[in-house]
Every structure is written in structure tokens, then in C-alpha cells.
Amino acid sequence: MTEVESIDGYRVKSPFLLFYKKHPEIGEPIADTLDGQEKKQHFTRACLTLEGSELCVEWIASSPPPIWMDGTLIKKFDIHEI
Questions:
Q1: Is-contact 25 13, C-beta < 8 A?
Q2: pTM (2 decimals)?
Q3: CA atoms within 13 A on the CB side of 74
Q4: Where are the beta strands (DSSP E) in the chain?
Q5: pLDDT in tens, 6-43
Q6: Which residues is 58 bridged to in the sheet?
Q7: C-alpha torsion sign, points 50, 52, 68, 5
Q8: DSSP 29-51
């Protein structure tokens, strides 16, 4: 069963929820989880996309990305390691 929470009125599903809880610096959600062809969740500073067993984090804020992004604007994480 997929874990879902409402944050600021938006539905956030796991693994986006787990990543948000671990990295709140991505900001608050600004839309519900999109369940189309690619699962996606937009936050104020990052866009998260589920690609198979990987979570792709794209830093979209004008501020520099956090250190865990390793100096890049896009980084992939194994969902089993979140």
C-alpha cells in the first residue's frame, strides 16, 4: 500500500513523501503527485520524478543546490536507499 499524506493541501505519495521527510530543503509541495506516464511531484525548490526504481531530483530553485546534490542540478537516487 502506498503511503500518502496531505501537506499544505496537496497529496504527497511515497517515495516522494519519504524523500521530502529526509530532505525538507526541497521545499513544500506545490501540486498533487501526478500519476500519468511518469510519476512526478513538484516542490518549491525541486521536481521529483519516479523512473522505475530510481527517484530523479531536479533542482529548480534559483538558489544553489544543497550539498547532497554533489554540485549538479539533477541527481538520481535508488528508491530503496531513501
A1: no
A2: 0.88
A3: 3
A4: 4-7, 10-13, 39-42, 46-51, 54-59, 74-78
A5: 888 888 888 899 999 999 999 999 988 876 656 899 99
A6: 47, 74
A7: positive
A8: B-SPPB-SSSEEEEBSSEEEEEE
